[in-house]
Amino acid sequence: MRRNPATGAVPGPWRAAGAAGAHEWPIREVARATGLTSRALRHYEQIGLVRPSRVAANGYRFYGEAELSRLYRVLSLRALELPLASIQRALDDEQSLEEAIAAHLVSLEVQRERTNRQITAARQTLDAVQKGRTMSIDEMFASFDNSQYEREVRERWGDEAWEGSARARETRSDAERDAADALGTEVNAALRAFAEAGLAPDAEAFQAAVAAHYGWVAGHWGRPPEAEGYAGLAQLYVADARFAAVYGGAANAQVIQRAIECWIGANLGGAESSA
Q1: Gap between the terminal Cα atoms of the chain
Q2: In whole angstroms, what is the distance from residue 210 CA to residue 256 CA?
Q3: Does pTM surpass 0.70?
Q4: Where are the domains of the chain?
Q5: Over the stretch 79-138, which tens digit does the pLDDT of each residue have?
Q6: Cα(271)–Cα(265) distance, rounded to whole angstroms?
Q7: The CATH number of domain 12-94 is 3.40.630.30
C-alpha cells in the first residue's frame, strides 16, 4: 500500500466509492493489497489497533482512508519488528513514535549482545566436542537461555524440580558452584570413559559411577530424583544431541542410559527398560 508522502492520502487505485461518496474498501480488498489475512485484520480490530470505519448489517468490514492511513503506519512499524503493544502506544500518543523506536532499538541491541554470547559459547562447545574434551555443566548450557526451558522442566519433572534447582543455584556461594561444577565434570567424564571402554552397563564400576552421578544430579536439582525423573533424564541424554555430545555421541549416551536404568532398578525400585 502506498501513500502520498506529502499529504498522507491513499492513491487513486485504492479508492472505492462507499455510501454518500465516502471512499471505503471491503476487508477482502484490504487483505489482498496488504498481504494480511482477514483474520489478522480482525485481530487488529479486536485489540483496538485498527478498527474498520463501519461494519455492515451482514458483518462485512469496510475501511476508509483514515483507517488505511493508520494501517499503513502499523505495517511500517511492524517491518521494524516492533511489538503490537508498542505500536499501539505510539499510535495512540501514549508513547511517541520516536520513543517506541528508541525502546525497540535498545531491545534489539540487548538481543544482539545475547546472541553474540551464545554464538561464542556454541563455537567453544563445538570445539570441545570435536577435540573430545569433556565439558563442564556450565559450558554445556552456556549457549542456551535456560529460562526458556522452565516450562519443559515443570511439565516433565514437576514444579519442585525447577524451583528446587533454582533455589540450589541461588543459595550456593561461588566456591560451592565451582565445587559442583568440578564434580559434574568428574562424574560425567567417568560415565563417558566407561561407555567408551565398552564396560557392561551393570558392571560394578559403572554402577558406582552412576551412583555418583545420581548424587550430583540430586545436588543440582535440590532434591534426590525419583525413579521416573531420573529415568527421564537418562532418556534426555540420548534424545537431545547437546547432552549426547557431552558423552561422546548417541551410542555412548545409550550405554549410559542402560547403566542408569540398571541402577534405578537396583536402588529406586524402578522397572528397567527393555530397550
Answers
A1: 59
A2: 8
A3: no
A4: 12-94, 152-267
A5: 877 788 888 888 876 556 567 677 777 777 877 887 787 787 777 767 776 776 655 555
A6: 5
A7: no
